[in-house]
């Protein structure tokens, strides 16, 4: 197992023999290798999912496209901080109508949420072929770029907090998926993605940051337990069914995680 | 025959100076400061006087300890904010944790000092927006509890203040759910807006696991340069009129005990004594339309002269002189439906509905219709919510002023009693009552 990891690391160009790395960075090599494997697995799933999604749109299968939408977004939402390293692609794939002067009718409005708008607000797959093809091209490009990317450690570790900030910024209010009301899927995926990072670096801080990890685990537990109340089938109920009390509980847990995880880079000695 | 003090609060205008703040002689020594006096009796009891230019100092310090919370009978500084939160507290222990940690932040922020320095690779403990050293700047942070905090928690509901209720819609209201109610309110006031924003950000950062921000409204009041006579005057609101002229004298302890502070005779839970009911209303003013209204009509609607604030039956008087409604029973001078006459008819029967107002003007931006979104962040305090604000508002329902104003938000809260000393915390009497109730049950 150890040997296999070393080989993977070598293949990924992550075993660097040049200028000496700080101990903290050496400690991070293995978690980052594992994280890269995780991310590329997710982008591979993303390409597969979007392919099926685009096929259903072009075949005019409205209900199928609607059913696929929240699921196929999840791999993207899990690894969003890495996708955001390529801002051109992040904008093309996941920007919202608010980002455009003419909002939904702005011809520039692309990606997932443009299609979401068509499927739910217009209740139709009409006129989506072009934007769907572009989405597939963009997620494929994302996958290829990520495969070739050397992951910056501070972006990986900082990604845990970034994911919580994403939830705090637009998911908790239901603004992200405002046409489909599928925000709880995103919520779960963002949280899973953040927890993945915490678990990868956990061995590095388990002896020194016991209280911190205990608090972080408790808040993740609160998020997952609360979300579990809203599971339906393989997914979730509409965001609109989230109670005020649970929204408060989630908001507090997410914001506290964002506060706590914002210290993770520093705790690992990363600038 | 008439008790002028009850009717007007202050018979005479008061002189500037001694604005009721402890000048911070050693603001950076943290909690080691001597315990302030137990009651805060402002030298100037007219708390809605306009703040005077060039008198506020960043070192102004309002004691955070005392029989009552600061920020109620405290002279109103130039800037204020009302923030409303959802509370995360599933047990009495959670609620105690909230009160203790919130008190610790209030203690630090109102006394001032240097926030702890962290490793620069970590996020800073302080936002830095007021510089490396936090100065008190007359900051007060006043905690109020909403009825939902009690109603949503079976272990707390039995200790609900007797008159605390969810704010109901009045006929002229157009309430926006996103600007109403809340489990807990913080009224944050200071000399400068930066200090209020700094305090809010500090509290949000430090209590993210207990407090979820729901809405906030900021406001301010004009700072004036006193005239040659050195006399003070009430701040003007965005309708151009002086607001607060008839406020009761906050320096008069027995008057405050009668009108503002919950006392033993109120039939309230014991823990609530020395607290007060807080009513908050976000009242939009249709300023364009108001500005297109003849001055005489404006004055008849308000019941005062716009320039001087004088009551209409005494045009040469000042804002602090008292209208003689008995001599004007038909409302020839001051119309019977004018704002000030309905709000405070100055009769024996309406004496108990006198409230302590502490409002701020707000200016938020532009509506979709291209009109200014301006108005009044109305905040008032009273010992009995029903006899106070609710009774006053019912008298005002249907007043001619309604054509120019639209309440869009707010809520009712119960401002906690004060804390005895540095070792105490805000909310301790409620937690003690909870413990007592638990012991009796077990």
Can you walk me through this structure?
The complex is a heterodimer of chains A (271) and B (442). By secondary structure, chain A is mainly α. Helix content of chain A is 69%, strand content 1%. Chain A has a two-stranded antiparallel sheet. Chain A is globular and about 55 Å long. The two termini of chain A are 31 Å apart. The model of chain A has no long low-confidence stretch (mean pLDDT 92). In chain B, helix 2 packs antiparallel against helix 4 (193-206) and helix 2 packs antiparallel against helix 10. Chain B starts with a helix and ends with a helix. Chain B is of the alpha+beta class. The A-B interface holds A 219, 244-245, 248-249, 251-253, 255-256, 258-259, 262-263, 265-267, 269-271 and B 86-88, 119, 121-123, 152, 205, 208-212.
Quick rundown:
Chain A has 271 residues and is mainly α. Helix content of chain A is 69%, strand content 1%.
Parts with pLDDT < 50 across at least 5 consecutive residues of chain A: none
For the largest interface, the chains and their residue counts are: A-B, 20 and 14 residues
The N- and C-terminal alpha carbons of chain B lie at a distance of 55 Å
Rough outline of chain B = globular
Alpha plus pi helix count of chain A: 12
Low-confidence stretches of chain B are 1-43
How large is the share of residues in beta strands of chain B? 15-25%
Number of strands of chain A: 2
Radius of gyration of chain A: 19 Å
Question: Structural class of the helices, strands and pairings of chain B?
Answer: alpha+beta
Mean pLDDT level of chain B: 90
**Major β-sheet strand ordering of chain A:** 1-2
What is the number of E strands of chain B?
Answer: 11
Oligomeric category: heterodimer
Could you state the order of secondary-structure elements of chain A as H and E?
A: HHHHHHHHHHEEHH
The amount of helix of chain A comes to: 55-70%
Please summarize the sheet with the most strands of chain B: 9 strands, antiparallel
How many helical stretches of chain B?
10
């Amino acid at each position: 197992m150890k040997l296999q990891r070393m080989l993977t690391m070598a293949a990924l160009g992550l075993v660097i023999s040049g200028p000496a790395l700080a101990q903290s960075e050496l400690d991070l090599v293995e978690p980052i290798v594992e994280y890269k494997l995780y991310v590329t697995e997710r982008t591979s799933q993303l390409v597969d999912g979007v392919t099926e999604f685009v096929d259903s749109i072009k075949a005019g299968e409205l209900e199928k496209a609607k059913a696929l939408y929240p699921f196929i977004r999840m791999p993207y939402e899990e690894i969003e901080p890495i996708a955001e390293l390529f801002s051109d692609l992040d904008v093309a794939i996941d920007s919202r109508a608010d980002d455009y002067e003419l909002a939904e009718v702005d011809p520039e409005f692309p990606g997932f949420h443009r299609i979401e708008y068509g499927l739910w607000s217009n209740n139709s797959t009409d006129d989506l072929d072009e934007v769907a093809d572009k989405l597939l091209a963009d997620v494929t490009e994302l996958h290829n770029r990520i495969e070739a990317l050397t992951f910056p450690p501070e972006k990986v570790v900082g990604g845990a907090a970034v994911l919580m900030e994403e939830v705090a910024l637009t998911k908790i209010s239901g603004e992200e998926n405002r046409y489909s009301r599928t925000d709880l899927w995103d919520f779960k995926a963002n949280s899973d993605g953040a927890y993945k990072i915490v678990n990868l670096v956990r061995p590095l801080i388990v002896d020194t940051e016991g209280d911190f990890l205990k608090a972080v685990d408790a808040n993740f537990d609160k998020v997952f337990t609360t979300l579990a109340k809203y599971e339906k089938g393989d997914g979730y109920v509409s965001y609109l069914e989230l109670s005020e009390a649970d929204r408060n509980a989630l908001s507090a847990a997410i914001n506290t995680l964002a506060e706590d995880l914002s210290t993770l880079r520093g705790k690992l000695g990363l600038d | 025959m008439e008790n002028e003090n009850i009717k007007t609060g202050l018979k005479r205008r008061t002189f500037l100076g001694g604005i009721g703040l402890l000048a911070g002689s050693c603001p950076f020594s943290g909690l080691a400061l001597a315990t302030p006096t137990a009651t805060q009796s402002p030298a100037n009891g007219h708390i809605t006087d306009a703040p005077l230019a060039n008198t506020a100092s960043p070192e102004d310090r309002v004691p955070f300890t005392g029989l009552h919370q600061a920020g109620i009978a405290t002279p109103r500084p130039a800037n204020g904010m009302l923030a409303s939160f959802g509370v995360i507290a599933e047990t009495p222990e959670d609620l105690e944790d909230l009160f203790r940690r919130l008190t610790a932040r209030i203690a630090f922020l109102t006394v001032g000092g240097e926030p702890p320095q962290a490793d620069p690779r970590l996020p800073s403990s302080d936002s830095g927006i007021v510089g490396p050293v936090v100065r008190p700047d007359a900051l007060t942070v006043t905690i109020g509890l909403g009825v939902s905090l009690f109603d949503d928690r079976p272990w707390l509901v039995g200790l609900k203040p007797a008159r605390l209720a969810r704010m109901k819609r009045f006929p002229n209201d157009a309430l926006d759910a996103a600007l109403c109610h809340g489990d807990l309110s913080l009224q944050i006031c200071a000399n400068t807006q930066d200090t209020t924003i700094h305090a809010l950000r500090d509290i949000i950062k430090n209590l993210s696991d207990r407090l979820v921000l729901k809405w906030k409204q900021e406001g301010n009041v004009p700072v004036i340069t006193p005239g040659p006579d050195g006399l003070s005057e009430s701040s003007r609101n965005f309708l151009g009129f002086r607001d607060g002229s008839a406020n009761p004298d906050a320096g008069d302890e027995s008057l405050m005990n009668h009108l503002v502070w919950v006392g033993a005779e109120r039939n309230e839970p014991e823990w609530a004594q020395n607290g007060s009911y807080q009513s908050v209303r976000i009242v939009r003013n249709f300023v364009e339309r108001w500005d297109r209204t003849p001055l005489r009509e404006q004055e008849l609607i308000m019941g005062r002269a716009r320039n001087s604030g004088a009551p209409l039956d005494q045009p040469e008087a000042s804002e602090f002189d008292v209208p003689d409604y008995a001599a004007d029973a038909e409302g020839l001078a001051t119309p019977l439906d004018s704002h000030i006459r309905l709000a405070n008819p100055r009769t024996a029967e309406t004496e108990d509905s006198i409230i302590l107002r502490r409002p701020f003007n707000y200016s938020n931006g532009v509506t979709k219709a291209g009109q200014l979104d301006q108005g009044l962040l109305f905040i008032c305090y009273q010992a009995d919510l029903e006899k106070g604000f609710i009774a006053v508002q019912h008298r005002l329902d249907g007043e001619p002023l309604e054509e120019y104003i639209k309440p869009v938000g707010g809520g009712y809260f119960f401002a906690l009693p004060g804390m005895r000393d540095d070792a105490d915390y805000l909310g301790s009497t409620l937690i003690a009552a909870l413990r007592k109730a638990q012991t009796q049950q077990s």
